[in-house]
Amino acid sequence: MSRSGVRRARATASSARSCWTQRCCAAANVSDAIVAFFFEALAELRAALRARGSDLALLEGDAAQQLLSLAERVDAGVLYYNVDYEPAAVERDRRVAAAARAVGMSAQTCTDHVYYGEDEVLKADGTPYTVFTPYMRRWLERRANDPRPPIESSAAAQHKFAAREAIGETREVPAPAAYGRLRPPNLPRAGEKQARDVLDTFLRERIADYAKMRDFPAAAGTSHLSPHLRAGTIGIRTCIARAEEMQRGQAAGRSGSETWVGELIWRDFYQQILAHFPRVAREPFDQRAQRIAYRDSKHDWEAWARGLTGYPIVDAAMRQINTYGWMHNRLRMIVASFLATSSNISSTATRRPTTAAGNGRRRPGPMRRRTSASSIRCCKVKNSIRAAPSFAAWCPSLRISKGTRCTRRGRSRRSPRKPAGFA
Description:
The structure is a single chain. By secondary structure, the chain is mainly alpha-helical. The chain has 3 domains: 1-110, HUPs (Rossmann fold); 112-157 and 190-278, Serine Threonine Protein Phosphatase 5, Tetratricopeptide repeat (Alpha Horseshoe); 292-394, no CATH class. 46% of the residues lie in helices and 4% in strands. It has helices at 3-15, 22-25, 32-51, 63-74, 87-102, 132-145, 153-156, 164-167, 192-205, 210-213, 226-231, 236-249, 254-276, 298-305, 312-324, 329-342, 378-386, 391-394; strands spanning 17-20, 57-60, 78-82, 106-110. The strands form 2 sheets. The protein has a two-stranded parallel sheet. The protein has a two-stranded parallel ribbon with strand order 3-4. Strand 3, helix 5 and strand 4 form a beta-alpha-beta unit. The longest helix is centred in the middle third of the chain and has 23 residues, at 254-276.
């Protein structure tokens, strides 16, 4: 195949196509926010490609059939795709690659969602890490010798995109409502420009104090880049390169930069866990936890998902994600712990969507109390006290006393004997 043909295949198979299925967009464990954010990101990408004389081919249906049909239409001979470690995506990519090779196409993988692939940071004996700290040390050692700086894709791909005429007619970017989805009212805007603006604001205003302020859910102390990293509107290599610039240029921000890079390394760690132990997508990593007898309460699940449990910190967090499509990391810990330990409900066994929209069923009342608030660890109760000022913004009907303090046993003083009410 000619070099120009390879370039055209690269553009067509990677940067100029998106394929999804109706089943994926309607899946119960895929939130409205994810669907809406991804569609907005696709619209922004399409506009950028059309400005360069190319297009984004939007394909719906079986991935193998749709991609091979497009490849035949544009005379592509190579299929490039980024590795995805979700079990369903692994199976999808395996089928697509096999189908491509069956018709004489080459299938090439790229590492993009993570900084290092699942087999690039391993123990000396070649086995994967299951503890974060030694993984992080090895990750940093590798980066000192094998950095992966970001590539300015616009410049690198100049004159290499497939022409819009070659791609042909393709459908418009659908609205979330086409798949029964509602866009959360305050969902952040998606797109590469928006992601870069969010990163610039974080580096300019907050990263110096990140190590301290990230523990306060009421403060704007985190990057707010998680939806962009998830959707691919910004890459982890860009984030780490910019953080490294901050470390070199501002000594005062070094601690914050290092802490934030450590959080990004957590992403790589969990992705390689998923790659090596795909069972964690449906069951606990520690198999001893399989013996826990969880209960399945539709009423309590809905109360938790919609922020109606009667526990202020839990309800504030769930109403935040239902409104903004984002939740503070410390609040994620609290609500997950509340669901699994205080409510004894397994998130993997109960696959119901978390959404701010009503679903036609009756409005659930406060969650039936099974355990006391002391089952939430003391450190998490402390975080809830720190978050108190933000309650009015996320759910004004919830109140907490200004003088509330945390005791050694993990129970907050003045906490009500019964769950707090809601408006």
